[in-house]
Amino acid sequence: MKNYEIVWIIGGDSENLTDESIKKMEETIISSNGEVVNVESMGKRSLAYPIKKNNEGIYFCINFQIAENKVKDLESTISLDQSIIRFLLVKSISRRSKCKSKG
Prior knowledge:
By secondary structure, the chain is an alpha+beta fold. The chain has one domain: Ribosomal protein S6/Translation elongation factor EF1B (Alpha-Beta Plaits, 2-Layer Sandwich).
């Protein structure tokens, strides 16, 4: 299994969905036979440009391990989530989080 990191953003007006978004992402990773290593909420931030009519977003980061052949399926599942306005999934060199909270 390889190490990966995903950062995703939900709309700034969705503050009541933060715990639900984290739980849903963890369940998605686990259902793809992955293992969650670290979860971090990075807080609400202004977006550089509007995304889907949102000027602010709530950022999250998860480090996890998953088999390489499951990554495409995982990305497809994540892209179907309507509450996520943007996400980035990258291969990570180490298990330690590179996400750092600002503020």
